[in-house]
Design a protein that fits this description.
The complex is a heterodimer of chains A (397) and B (576).
Chain A: H1 2-23, H2 38-42, H3 62-66, H4 90-94, H5 112-116, H6 120-125, H7 137-146, H8 165-170, H9 172-184, E1 191-203, E2 209-219, E3 223-234, E4 241-251, E5 256-265, E6 273-283, E7 287-296, E8 301-309, E9 311-312, E10 317-328, E11 340-352, E12 358-369, H10 371-379, E13 385-396
Antiparallel strand pairs in A: 1-2, 1-13, 2-3, 3-4, 4-5, 5-6, 6-7, 7-8, 8-10, 9-10, 10-11, 11-12, 12-13
Chain B: H1 2-21, E1 32-33, E2 44-46, E3 49-61, E4 64-71, E5 79-83, E6 87-94, E7 103-105, E8 129-135, E9 140-145, E10 157-163, E11 174-183, H2 188-197, H3 219-227, E12 244-247, E13 257-259, E14 266-272, E15 279-282, E16 288-293, E17 296-303, E18 306-308, E19 313-318, E20 325-331, E21 337-343, H4 382-386, E22 417-418, E23 454-463, E24 468-471, E25 483-486, E26 490-497, E27 503-507, E28 512-514, E29 524-525, E30 527-530, E31 534-541, E32 546-552, H5 555-559, E33 563-569
Parallel strand pairs in B: 1-13, 2-5, 3-6, 5-10, 11-14, 13-21, 22-31, 23-26, 25-33
Antiparallel strand pairs in B: 3-4, 6-8, 7-9, 9-10, 11-12, 14-19, 15-18, 15-20, 16-17, 16-19, 20-21, 23-24, 26-31, 27-30, 27-32, 28-29, 28-31, 32-33
Classes of the chains: A alpha+beta (397), B mainly beta (576).
């Protein structure tokens, strides 16, 4: 129905359009003073693009020559047959018949010859300045360009009311709604993102495992709600490690966010709740980093740091080295943590971006535990470390 | 009424009779134009009373339908042809389920008719109408578009031609309107979200190990960029990965064709109505005579290529021979191009040159000044001059600016230079003449030659990584103080680009003069490209009382907050 009425609108609007068209058969202004129309030319009655015959005998006055618009002929005898001597007006130049002198080479105004006999027509063409204008204006402007114009606050009149000019015309109520839309549509949008950085299968000696590492955020440019989760385990067993972080994220610089909130652990072993405080962002040379300190409900202090870098081989093929390290301020037997550096992982993944939003990858990941942490793991019959082959996908939306 | 129009169609068809005999489709349905109208938008609106209907459309590009918003059923919107000195009343019927608006880009109108919701007027609510009414005080090539949400990306834009009251200073035999735009099948809100999620998501032309040797960059420069967390290939936020570039609503495959006769002076009225694309324009085999910009005549200057920022307009005169030509609108990042054909006959096509190698940004684009220290600007920031070694500059020295530098500002150009003499990103070494703003000289002398009494510096700021964009570090959503001018005050604006992107800056309700070394004949513009790491000075007479929008015309930059209000007081009728 809407389309039908549109069609109707279009057809009723067409006639005036065509009427207008007919008023301008071949351009808004008449063909430049030549009686040879394209139609005539086509019939062979005349030749079209010859330079305009309007100003038949070209008249290069000394004034014009002084302005550089033409050259005075050597001898008057050659004048009628000398096309080069045609006065080059901007109109002519616009027609492509001649070239105007380089404007930069020759500042226009202020030539005294021009100001003395400045016809309005000439002024309109920009050849001179009418007498009414201060002949020194040009010099002043030139000077102004060199001399720095001082940075100053607005004069007092500029501060006169009302605050919003449109209110006086349309009413404050109507404008208030418009203004709130205006703000909303110019910088105040809520955006969200979900990134599954790693969803991978890990092949290794013994039982194969899996890792899911994802984060999502929602908010404005400065403040966001940020959620992170990491789940890790071996196929066929209970989830080994699982955690969720809910963080308030606040931009503290062009490339870094400060993040604070809670972390809950839901894996094997005793569950903990932690206060989390971290920094996530981009280091010089495009290194992505994420570091956080955790204070558990039992008073234990731990920390974690990650860094990733995208090395582009082609537009779609990317090598991503990745390091991760865990730290603990104290020994926590219950959690199997020694103090100091507890564990670290070093990996390289090669991913292929089918689209920037979806990329399968394959790689290797070497991880190991250190010190007492390693001892705890061995005591539990776990590996102290080793090499994993990984295959997974990275996706975001 | 209808009969008459059919007769008239037959009459104007006279010129097209030859073409028709050659098997042409009816003019209004074809991708071929004899001039004066933009294809797909066959509507041409004129007179004192104009009606427009904004509605949702199904718009086809290369046969694939997409959701669009158009006017009177067309994209681009109908050509509005007015006459200088007339009055016009334009009633806009909004059939959308959301607010809309029309801004008359470049037209000098009373501020409350300017069409920016929340600044000039309340906006046109869903399923309601609004009538604009204003005198037509100028002539030339302009355009109109929505200033609501992201509607402009969806097709809400159209050309305006105003014929002068007197004789046209630009003689021509035929004219074509060339409306450039960018089309995406992705919903603009999703597109914006993607940019916020990952600023470089549409860049498929990064530096990689595989192509590392192909750029002019030295390893040292590349390191410098990486250290700053800046991507030297981040030229355009949205690229051909998401866009099809259109000319008069037609993709390169649809090949819009403008007809001419050999030897005619053909006037091309070039309008960049794209949402997020700056174009490099050339017509291989033809010299382009630039005769006007932003509607106002300039001394003709002959070039081979020009860069056109969003919302700029250029009038060109070309004199083609009896052959076909390709009009190439190459995206600034060279990921894609719009292509149309100029030909003496429908169905002809000329060779289309391949995309040129994509450019990389330079130290100059970082605001490090020119690498040869000769043309460096030492006056802009006194302290910058004293620190000699270019590489040691702090790229975010907060002491250089007097606004709060937060996370939204990732760079402050240490040594910005006047770049009005530069052709634009990637065009320094193309081997032919490219237009620069220095080449432009107003055809008629400036009406106000007063020396500005003060200068205001406006920093164009942003954070590429977070896709945050602002002016003086603040987004419009943060309710910043307006820039305030006294009525008829003569002011110099210095727009300093503290980012690595070209920003086409548009001030509503005014023309400003580019300070480009042509005193007394400074060219007038409503929109100007401010090149990365550089600045432009413009002189302005604040002669239009009211509140005006001032913003980057890259739609997604504006949407991200790169917009301000300019207040000119006292208002009409108030005491000075």
């Amino acid at each position: 129905m809407i389309r039908a009425s549109l069609l109707l609108a279009a057809t009723t609007l067409a006639p005036p359009a065509l009427a207008q068209h007919s008023g301008h058969p071949s351009g808004a202004s008449p063909a430049p003073a030549t009686s040879c129309t394209p139609e005539h030319a086509a019939m062979g009655h005349c030749k079209m693009p010859e330079p305009a015959p309007k100003s038949a005998p070209p008249t290069c006055t000394p004034e014009h020559a002084a302005m550089g618009h033409c050259k005075l002929p050597e001898g008057h005898a050659s004048l009628p047959s000398e096309p080069a001597a045609i006065v080059c007006t901007p109109e002519h130049a616009a027609m492509g018949h001649c070239k105007l002198p380089e404007p930069a080479a020759e500042p226009v105004p202020a030539a005294p010859a021009a100001t003395t006999s400045c016809q309005p027509e000439h002024a309109a063409m920009g050849h001179c300045e009418p007498a009414a204008v201060d002949p020194h204006a040009g010099h002043d402007m030139g000077a102004a360009q060199q001399v720095e114009i001082p940075v100053r606050p607005a004069p007092a009149e500029a501060l006169a009311g009302p605050a919003d000019a449109a209110d006086a015309v349309w009413g404050s109520d109507a404008m208030a709604r418009g203004r709130s839309i205006l703000r909303k549509e110019h910088g105040d949008m809520t955006v969200a993102k979900l990134l599954i950085d790693r969803a991978e299968q890990q092949f290794r000696k013994g039982r194969d495992g899996y890792v899911v590492d994802a984060q999502g955020w929602i908010g404005g440019d400065i403040d966001k709600l940020w959620l992170k989760t990491e789940v890790e385990g071996d196929w066929g067993r209970k989830v080994e490690e699982a955690e969720v972080q809910a963080l308030w994220s606040h931009a503290i610089g062009p490339w870094f966010d400060l993040q604070a909130g809670l972390r809950g652990d839901f894996g094997e072993g005793p569950n903990r709740t932690h206060l989390a405080l971290g920094v996530q962002g981009l280091l010089p040379y495009w290194v992505e980093v994420d570091g956080a300190l955790f204070l558990s409900s039992k008073g234990e202090v731990t920390a974690r740091a990650e860094a990733e870098y995208d090395l582009r081989i082609t537009q779609k093929l990317i090598v991503q080295p990745r390091v991760e390290a865990g730290l603990s301020a104290q020994k926590v037997g219950e959690l199997g943590l020694g103090s100091g550096l507890t564990d670290a992982a070093l990996g390289v993944r090669l991913r292929y971006e089918i689209s920037p939003l979806f990329a399968p990858y394959a790689g290797v990941d070497y991880e190991r535990a250190f010190g007492a942490t390693r001892d705890y793991r061995r005591a539990h019959g776990e590996r102290g470390g080793g090499l994993n082959l990984v295959v997974g996908i990275r996706t975001w939306f | 009424m209808n009969d008459i129009s059919i007769d008239r169609r037959a009459f104007i068809g006279g010129g097209a009779a030859l073409a028709a005999a050659a098997g042409l489709q009816p003019a209004w349905a074809a991708t071929t134009s004899h001039g004066l109208t933009a294809a797909k938008s066959q509507g041409l609106l004129s007179g004192e009373d104009i009606r427009m209907t904004v509605s949702e459309l199904n718009f086809r590009v290369d046969g694939r339908p997409g959701h669009a918003i158009g006017i009177n059923g067309t994209i681009p919107a109908p050509l509005v042809r007015l006459k200088e000195g007339q009055n016009v009343r334009i009633t806009v019927d909004n059939q959308l389920d959301e607010d809309t608006s029309i801004h008359w880009h470049g037209l000098i109108v009373p501020f409350h008719m300017d069409g920016v919701p929340g600044i000039s007027f309340p906006g046109i609510r869903a399923r309601s109408s609004f009538t604009y009414e204003f005198p037509v005080r100028q002539s030339g090539t302009y355009w109109y578009h929505s200033h609501s949400g992201l509607q402009e990306q969806l097709g809400h834009y159209g050309p305006i031609i105003i014929d002068p009251a007197g004789p046209d200073p630009i003689a021509h035999d035929r004219e074509h309107v060339i409306v450039l735009s960018d089309w995406t099948f992705m919903h603009p809100h999703r597109l914006f979200t993607r940019l916020k999620q990952e600023g470089g998501v549409f860049n498929r032309n990064r530096r990689t190990l595989a192509n590392r040797g192909e750029d002019k960059m030295s390893a040292k420069e590349a390191r410098e960029f990486a250290r700053m967390r800046m991507d030297p290939t981040d030229i355009s936020d949205v690229t051909a990965a998401a866009y099809t570039y259109l000319i008069n609503g037609h993709s390169p495959g649809e090949n819009w064709t403008g007809l001419f006769r050999a030897g005619e002076r053909v006037r091309l009225r070039l309008i960049n109505a794209a949402a997020q694309t700056i174009f490099n324009i050339r017509i291989p085999g033809l010299k382009l005579l630039v005769v006007a910009t932003d509607g106002i005549a300039v001394r003709p200057v002959e070039v081979d290529e020009l860069q056109i920022g969003n919302a700029e307009t250029y009038d060109l005169i070309v004199v083609p021979e009896n052959r076909a030509y390709s009009l190439i609108a190459e995206g600034i990042d060279r990921s894609g191009m719009g292509v149309a054909t100029l030909a003496p006959q429908a169905g002809m096509r000329a060779a289309v040159p391949p995309l040129r190698k994509r450019p990389t940004l330079t130290m100059t684009d970082m605001g490090m000044g020119a690498m040869d220290h000769g043309s460096m600007d030492h006056s802009a920031h006194g302290d910058a001059a004293s620190s000699a070694p270019a590489m040691s500059h702090d790229m975010r020295d907060k002491s250089k600016v007097d606004f709060k530098v937060g996370p939204g500002v990732d760079m402050i150009a240490p040594m910005p230079m006047d770049r009005v003499g530069d052709p634009g990103v990637g065009l320094d070494d193309v081997g032919h003449k490219v237009l620069t703003y220095k080449d432009l000289v107003a055809l008629t002398p400036n009406s106000d030659t007063r020396v500005p009494t003060r200068r205001i510096d406006i920093h164009l700021t942003g954070n590429m990584e977070r896709f945050m964009w602002s002016m003086d570090g603040e987004k419009l959503s943060e309710n910043p103080e307006p820039y305030r001018f006294a009525r008829n005050e003569r002011v110099r604006l210095r727009m300093i680009n503290d980012t690595m992107m070209t920003h086409p800056m548009h001030l509503h309700g005014h023309f400003f003069e580019i300070v480009n070394g042509n005193p007394g004949n400074q060219p007038l513009k409503h929109t100007i490209r401010v090149l990365p790491g550089g600045y432009v000075d413009v002189d302005l007479t604040a002669d239009a009382p009211g509140d005006w929008a001032f913003h980057c015309h890259l739609l997604y930059h504006m949407h991200a907050g790169m917009m301000r209000v300019v207040s000119v007081r006292p208002l009409e009728g108030a005491e000075a």
